[in-house]
Specification:
The complex is a heterodimer of chains A (119) and B (111). Chain A is an all-beta fold. Chain A is built from no helices and eleven strands. In chain A, 0% of the residues lie in helices and 54% in strands. In chain A, the strands form two sheets. In chain A, strands 2, 4, 5, 6, 9, 10 and 11 form a seven-stranded mixed sheet that branches. Chain A has a four-stranded antiparallel sheet with strand order 1-3-8-7, with no helix packed on it. The termini of chain A are far apart. In chain B, 4% of the residues lie in helices and 43% in strands. Classes of the chains: A mainly beta (119), B mainly beta (111). At the A-B interface, strand 5 and strand 10 of A face strand 7 and strand 8 of B.
């Protein structure tokens, strides 16, 4: 069974750094792109970026380029999303997703990680 | 890259059909047959319902169908059931610069 299990909710202050994780299981982690999707409170879905764990090739949405860093450690089948200096506007639910290259769709989703940034 | 345009809401009675539109441009929806649709219940992660415009993943009821004409894709839910009440988002591949874009989302209410 394919599963993406994300790290738990985080409460941070503005200016702090953060790294959240997404562990894949039930499939070949290095053979599928893993992406990140933001959902701000009461809002829609936004595609942030994507990484291929096999070679760490990474692509970012122009809207998120320079704002976050996506990485992966294939030895432990885990992808990461990190911020160096959080802002209140980063408060959102973040989902990791498995991307199917053949269909250009996101076929499996993690349960989400809620990030709250507040002073 | 702007979000794809969806109506904010749609509704229908049990057993009826509802169709949701998703309008983009020739750079995304109109340019590729890579439109997908996602269902999201409150407090839950989205779930893939349709991919490549009209294909259904295993386990998705055939009440859900997709189509596309020009720059507009559509999701139709036939024989509405109470459990179909949810938010629905479309998504499209948008080329090698913008990659992927989501729709604005539509809340489907079963009356």
């Amino acid at each position: 069974e394919v599963q993406l299990v994300q790290s738990g909710a985080e409460v941070k202050k503005p200016g702090e750094s953060l790294k959240i994780s997404c562990k894949g299981s039930g499939y070949s982690f290095t053979s599928y792109w893993i992406g990140w999707v933001r959902q701000m409170p009461g809002k829609g879905l936004e595609w942030m970026g994507i990484i291929y764990p096999g070679d760490s090739d990474t692509r970012y949405s122009p809207s998120f380029q320079g704002q976050v860093t996506i990485s992966a450690d294939k030895s432990i089948s885990t992808a990461y999303l990190q911020w160096s200096s959080l802002k209140a506007s980063d408060t959102a639910m973040y989902y990791c997703v498995r991307h199917s290259t053949a269909s250009e769709a996101f076929d499996y989703w993690g349960q989400g990680t809620l990030v709250t940034v507040s002073s | 890259q702007s979000a794809l345009t969806q109506p904010p809401s749609a509704s229908g009675s049990p057993g009826q059909s509802v169709t949701i539109s998703c309008t983009g441009t020739s750079s995304d929806v109109g340019g590729y047959n890579y439109v997908s649709w996602y269902q999201q219940h409150p407090g839950k992660a989205p779930k893939l319902m349709i991919y490549e415009v009209s294909k259904r993943p295993s386990g998705v009821p055939d009440r859900f169908s997709g189509s596309k004409s020009g720059n507009t894709a559509s999701l139709t839910v036939s024989g509405l059931q109470a459990e179909d009440e949810a938010d629905y988002y479309c998504s499209s591949y948008a080329g090698s610069n913008n990659f992927y874009v989501f729709g604005t989302g539509t809340k489907v209410t079963v009356l």
